[in-house]
Amino acid sequence: MANSGYDAVSHAPPAEVGEMELVHPKTFVGKYIWSQDAKVIAVQYGITATAIGLVALVLSLLMRLQLGFPNTFSIIDPASYLQYVSMHGMIMVVYLLTALLLGAFGNYLIPLMCGARDMVFPYVNMLSYWVYLLAVLVLASGFFVPGGPTGAGWTLYPPQAVSPGTPGINWGIITMLVSLVIFIIGFTMGGLNYVVTVLQARTRGMTLMRLPLTVWGIFMATVLALLAFPALLVACLMMLMDRLLGTSFFMPAMAAAQGHDGGSPLLFQHLFWFFGHPEVYIVALPAFGIVSDLVATHARRHIFGYRMMVWAIIAIGGLSFVVWAHHMYVSGMNPSFGFLFATTTLIIAVPTALKVYNWVLTLWRGNIRLNVPMLFAIGFLFTFVNGGLSGLFLGNVTVDVPLSDTYFVVGHFHMVMAVAPILVIFGAIYHWYPKITGRMLDNRLGHFHFWVTFIGTYAIYYPMHYLGLEGVPRRYYAYGDTAFISDSVQAANVGITIAAFVVAAAQAAFIFNLAWSYFHGREAGPNPWEATTLEWQTPHTPPRHGNWGDELPVVYRWPYDYGVPGAEADFIPQNVPPAPAESSAGGTGGGRT
Amino acid sequence: MTVTLVFLAVLMAAFAGWLISQSVNVKPWVAASPEAVRAHHWPAGLTAPRIALVVFLAVVTSLFALGVSAYLSRMEYGVDWEPVPEPGLLWLNTGVLVLASVALQTAWKAARQGNGVRLMRWLAAGGLLTVAFIAGQLIVWRGLADAGYYVASNPANAFFYLLTGLHALHLLGGLIAWTRPLVRLSRGGAPGEVLGAVELCAVYWHYLLAIWAALFAILLYS
């Protein structure tokens, strides 16, 4: 570039930590199946998560059929309805969102964005994927065991999760718990890799404060996951012991008929939500990070308040461990205990709102390019604010108690942690697909996909808030002639079901786009979005195993040098050294790790 | 949950404090000169395996802190809580685990001094003592079951088996890692080649010994 005043290579030896030894297999199987390349592992994670996610999507459509047109479909009986609810929830939260955001995007982006050749432990990383696949297979086996999968709801509350009357108490609950244990083991292997790679394997000049916010989000989410998943692991092991060995960790005296006595169901709720609430941020933080980079890149502006954004990510991560009991306001807890958790819940809105303001201020007077990833990023902002605001209602004890277990809750959490992260995932796929495959996704299909998904999800989830205010309870198979439920509820349910089918059908266009563009898409070139971060500066597109050529890149600047006054182009990649005048004005920000 | 909250509060405070100390005085928007970039050196001691072990130990601590939290909160319910008797064998097992830790520490020292014979001897001793500890735990479990303290007969029993079982599982995992330097040495590897692995084993064993001491103290206290 014209403004490079220095020759990078002669001034700074690139590898700050020793070069990695990579395994370079020659066969197809070694390259694409038993691969130790984080980029291939990322795609494996992505395909597996999408596959099981499509199963969960079909389950939700079956639920919608029953709710929209009760007594029409004989294949859906009350037991299988509960099984659809449970499997849909668990698959979407753990096996799709967590695996996709951390397993797929984490694996693809962390080494590239940090300027590393690969994850620090490639073998463990490969193992992580295969253990995850095993977890998915064990989970899916629940559909084929006698009695079918568990119908206990995704929260698996005891004692009903293992008591007669709930579907799947013979085998389904066991496959679910075993699958979760396997998933957590596999995730720990991957998570260690993500954290250590970010901490240790960054290239020369890539200080923590020059990391793209995507890496910050994935990094902090991984830290949360590593500390929170043990709670789920303990809970799963204890429930397995209750189910298989006849212990009574969670089984109270009311389960005496099954030989249990003296357990505490509340203990499970505490353990589950001690995992369950950080899980919300395990999904949200990577989405926050990715959306920051999408907004900055496509608005051609530096992110507003980079340090604030980093501190907000750290603050949200810390606070997410002290809000879990707001899921348990109706469990009979001490009111002052509830007040404490209402307070922490409202406090966490402060750093979150700060992030929203910063995204909006980044857009303010930006040179906005309404590319498809940008549409999804802006769609995320709307959806996240909407879902977040209804969260402020539910965070207050007195409002939550009447709304608890109604469709208001369903509408809230689908807006904030289902639709919002999924919009970011779509945006991220449109953004990075050109780097992964070397070809652009089709633009017209992308616009179609965005508008149908964005408007369609509002058509699905906005009416649910109304249903919740009416008092319609969630998880019910049918409502019959309930006095307080008005006729318009049924009309709304029909509308929601139709919208759900339209949105689901639009996803076929997306999947077609992914497949078609792989062969026929326009050639992307190395940097189609004119972005600054390192993954767009690789010598090859798609990047080869090892990511970089002979030399690792050297980083001189933060990832948000868009529209720098006096610069020739409107973006300066991170590995371009400063012009002499630029650095003499700027002091020595480079010395820190 | 107090135990877990205290642990997490300390951990998150330390971690967030470190992260913020890395960021508070930095102007990320200012490009660094090549001199400044070159002047920076990554501390040689901060290798990936060492950082990974520390992170993993944080995960292990989270797991046991949650287990102990559950144990303590269940104990508070009281009424039907019948503490497990602590067989004297547990004291002997504790002694064996201390010796295993000492042996691995000695092996680590021998590896640093490049003394291959001593290293092999103490490394093997550390592993065998650990196997002896796990065997001792099996005898304890059998003895308790024979005396009528089945896993399902009382919540205290269930927790005892769960926590001690989890601890033994972690030692078994350590033994898998332990075989790697052992195999390498027995194939004629030099002490320097396995120094890193032996160091990680020793630290991991010390940590699991500390966790055992905490668990044992809590079990005695009940």
Explain what the structure shows:
The complex is a heterodimer of chains A (593) and B (222). With 593 residues, chain A is an all-alpha fold. Chain A has a domain at 527-593. Chain A has helices at 8-11, 28-33, 38-68, 78-114, 122-141, 172-200, 213-244, 265-299, 306-319, 335-347, 349-363, 372-395, 397-403, 407-437, 443-470, 487-520, 580-586. In chain A, helix 8 (265-299) packs antiparallel against helix 12. Chain A is globular. In chain A, 56% of the residues are buried. Chain B has 222 residues and is an all-alpha fold. Chain B contains seven helices and no strands. Chain B is flat. The model of chain B has no long low-confidence stretch (mean pLDDT 90). Chains A and B meet through helix 6, helix 7, helix 8, helix 9 and helix 17 of A and helix 1, helix 2, helix 3 and helix 6 of B.
Topology (elements, then pairings):
The complex is a heterodimer of chains A (593) and B (222).
Chain A: H1 8-11, H2 28-33, H3 38-68, H4 78-114, H5 122-141, H6 172-200, H7 213-244, H8 265-299, H9 306-319, H10 335-347, H11 349-363, H12 372-395, H13 397-403, H14 407-437, H15 443-470, H16 487-520, H17 580-586
Helix pairs in contact in A: 3-4, 3-5, 3-16, 4-6, 4-7, 4-8, 4-14, 5-6, 6-7, 7-8, 7-9, 8-11, 8-12, 8-14, 9-11, 11-12, 12-14, 12-15, 14-15, 15-16
Chain B: H1 2-21, H2 34-39, H3 48-77, H4 89-113, H5 116-146, H6 155-186, H7 191-221
Helix pairs in contact in B: 1-3, 3-6, 3-7, 4-5, 4-7, 5-6, 6-7
Question: What is this structure, in a nutshell?
Answer:
The complex is a heterodimer of chains A (593) and B (222). Chain A contains 17 helices and no strands.
